[in-house]
């Protein structure tokens, strides 16, 4: 994608009112985009190029793999967030040092790439989901949330807590 009249935004924090649809329900998303370029200062009607710098062994971006396994889903969400903020066209690019070619995904690919968001939404709004990645590495200490995480809505947490207490009561013969 070629962008004329370039405006560069570094370490761009998504606005607090940025929302996407997950499972048919709107959910606020947050994050910090490493770098993006746009053809205008305001995102309304803009063409954007979102760049995410990677150091690991991430596979090249693939809409089908993103939808089926969640690989690099964060990048698709960033591009969808740009669209929700008014961008009309754009790409997201994974930039890796030493890579011969940066892999990218276009807004036209988002319908396929974000096909799993309804499933993710069901997990979020039911409160039934888990983290598939290790929560500790040789480089972490103490308790840390994953870099890309979502909070379970308060009403769902309350329902889960009440259900857990009820199950504990039943397991103890009704005694707390």
Describe the structure.
The protein is an alpha+beta fold and 176 residues long. The protein folds into 2 domains: 7-125, no CATH class; 127-176, no CATH class. Helix content is 29%, strand content 24%. It has 5 helices and 7 strands. The chain has helices spanning 63-69, 73-84, 110-113, 117-126, 154-171, and strands spanning 7-13, 19-22, 25-28, 32-38, 47-54, 89-96, 103-106. The strands form 2 sheets. Strands 1-4-5-6-7 form a 5-stranded mixed β-sheet, with helices on one face. Strands 2-3 form a two-stranded antiparallel sheet. The protein starts with 6 loop residues before the first strand and ends in a 5-residue tail after the last helix. Residues 132-136 and 143-148 have low confidence and may be disordered.
Question: Short summary of the structure?
Answer:
The protein has 176 residues and is α+β, with helices and mostly antiparallel strands. It has helices spanning 63-69, 73-84, 110-113, 117-126, 154-171; strands at residues 7-13, 19-22, 25-28, 32-38, 47-54, 89-96, 103-106.
């Amino acid at each position: 994608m070629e962008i004329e009249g370039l405006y560069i935004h570094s370490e761009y924090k998504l606005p607090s009112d940025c929302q996407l649809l997950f499972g048919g329900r709107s959910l606020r998303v947050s994050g910090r985009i490493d770098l993006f370029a746009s053809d205008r200062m305001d995102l309304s009607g803009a063409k954007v190029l979102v760049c995410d710098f990677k150091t690991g062994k991430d596979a090249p971006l693939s809409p089908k793999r993103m939808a089926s396994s969640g690989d690099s889903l964060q990048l698709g969400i960033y591009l969808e967030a740009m669209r929700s903020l008014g961008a009309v066209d754009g790409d997201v690019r994974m930039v890796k040092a030493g890579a011969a070619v940066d892999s990218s995904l276009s807004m036209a690919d988002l319908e396929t790439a974000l096909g799993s968001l309804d499933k993710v939404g069901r997990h979020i709004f039911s409160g039934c989901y888990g983290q598939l990645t290790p929560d500790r590495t040789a480089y972490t200490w103490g308790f840390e949330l994953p870099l890309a995480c979502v909070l379970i809505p308060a009403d769902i947490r309350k329902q889960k807590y009440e259900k857990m207490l009820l199950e504990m009561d039943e397991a103890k013969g009704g005694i707390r």
